[in-house]
Amino acid sequence: MYKLKRAKKPDILQEKSKEWTEHLIEKRKTEPFYFYWHIHEGKPLNHIIQEPLLEMTRSHCAFCDGFFEQSPVTIEHFKPKSIFPELAYEWNNLFPCCYTCQQKSDDYKDLLLKPDELEYEYEKYFYNDYVTGEIVPNPKALVKDMARAEYTIKVYNLIAEGRNQGRKRYKKHFDRDIKPDIDDYPYRYFMK
Ligand SMILES: [Zn+2]
To answer: Over the chain, what is the mean pLDDT?
Structure first.
């Protein structure tokens, strides 16, 4: 999970999120799964906010840091909207996410690491195993921080075999690249 700096909140959310959230909470009283991306000037909200979100991650998934080559861009509610409807239109809760990472369950524990949190640093929590391509909890981290790393790896399935192989492959390319631009690579945290 590559560290991110939260982009500026889009005007549309500044203007409308309060109204939409109140509407959602009201509707949820009778329809527990009610949610939709409102249409604004003919364009659905998820399409409107996708652009600044992808700008923030340089077109990477916010969780695995892969590109969206074989995956549609989805928008992930970091704290699930099923449990936190009050955060359904909250800018800080929204991330661009690949289809694989989106498959996580709707369970949520505060252990989960958030890539745009000010105090989040990849190296504090994770360690790269360049032999296997895996990322593992940093063995030198505090026990509570290791637990957070472990939970985050599990929730987003970050050590799926395809991802381990991908990290190893791209790292090789990166090391041979004479003038690498890190944003041209997936798994940027692995390119050190
Ligand atoms: Zn992903």
So the answer is: 95
Tell whether 4 is covered by a domain.
no
The answer to whether the beta carbons of residues 74 and 66 sit under 8 Å apart is no
Q: Across residues 115-122, what is the average pLDDT?
A: 96
Residue 73 domain flag: yes
Going from the Cα of 169 to the center of ligand 1, the distance in angstroms, rounded, reads 17
Does the pLDDT value for residue 105 go beyond 80? Answer: no
Instruction: For residue 1, tell me if it sits in a domain.
Output: no
> What is the β-pairing status of strands 94-97 and 74-77?
antiparallel
**Which residues are close to ligand 1, an ion, with C-beta < 5 A?**
61, 63-64, 98, 101
Instruction: Examine residue 109 and state whether it is found in any structural domain, yes or no.
Output: yes
DSSP state of 91: G
Report which of 106, 110, 76, 79 is spatially closest to residue 94, judged by C-alpha positions.
Answer: 76
Q: Which domain holds residue 181?
A: 11-190
| Full-model pTM | 0.94
**190 Cα to the center of ligand 1, angstroms:** 14
